[in-house]
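Q: I'm writing up a methods section and want to include an example of the input and output format. Could you take the sequence below and give the corresponding predicted structure tokens, formatted cleanly so I can copy it straight into the document?
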Amino acid sequence: MTVDRAATADLRAVMPRPTLRAGSLVLHCLALFAAARTVTSVFLLWLTTQTTAASEAGASPSFTGLSSVWDGRWYRRIAYGGYPATLPVDAHGQVLQNEWAFLPGYPFVTRVVSTITGADWSAAAVGTALVLGAAAAVLLGLLLAPHVGADRALLAVALFSFSPVAFMLQTAYADSMMLCLVFGALLLVDRGRSGWAIPVVIAASLTRPGVLAVALAVALVLLQRWREERRWTRRTTWDLALLAVAGVGGLAWPLIAGSATGRADAYVLTEIAWRAPWTGSAVFTPFEPWLFVAQQLFGIAGPPVLGLVVGATAWFVLIPARRLGRTARIWVGAYALYLLAVFMPQTSLPRLLMPMAPALGAIRTPSRTVAIALVALSTVLQLLWCWCTYGPVKTWLTVP
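A: Here is the clean output for your methods example:
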């Protein structure tokens, strides 16, 4: 009997041995993440010598001080002061920016870490984000490898770790925690372990907005499985339980904010307070912010440009994303729809696109040289973004 060595090699690439290969994949993911964070850390350390009184971090901040500004200051307030019982308003009765826009999971965990280790809050916040960011990179690789092969999964992890906004994975933001939880939940769903994903999704619902996108993704995965199997199984029961938890979790924080402040729309009004200076409106209408921004940027051509963006995203989900496996593919589409419905595009958009990192698994490069060039370009863009965000002068055009 003859053995097709090429076919055997291809089979091993997409179906690695479950122990040794999985362990090797984890180590490679951690190595890529560590390399990326080393580069970013060196640059941020240098930036501490370049800041001025006009920068967001002030003159000559410490490394952790530089890394815990912007939203990090809100998280610190929550960690030690909690949330206001009454929404702050201006002279016209409009709700002002306040702590209710930020969920308690990350500041709570950070305060626990600070208490246990004795580290100050900034150091604990940065350290917590760094550890959770590393876990997110590993979970991303594990999610993609069975579907796209180890090499392309590692390329996706590299692009994720060196991406233009990857420095957020080591700053006092909740994104590392959310990415870790979301990728973990997707991995469990993909492996048919929806029951184990329930506590993960509950934690995610208290970390950052976006769990409604998880609910939509689980609903679509469940629908596809039902169409294929046409029978009720134990996994179906756990899928439905996860769907219910994600749906309730996605609505939980607005309900909590409304109950605590006595205003049912407290959370929505708080979120609008961040966009009102640009839109001039205190009313939330799904999908409208994207059209507003498109018209502001492109005038009469705004709607067609937005249509092209939406069409390109839909094309990606329907065709190239097929390589990602069902769970990751559906997640990318569900999260894109969620952002289109609730988010107003602004400078934080690249950061909020990070949960779509599984889409990176669809990238094919003709050679290792091209892959290295993509990672190098991402790194340069990241350092440029760092300079604009934490550099000598504060600029609202680069709020992370």
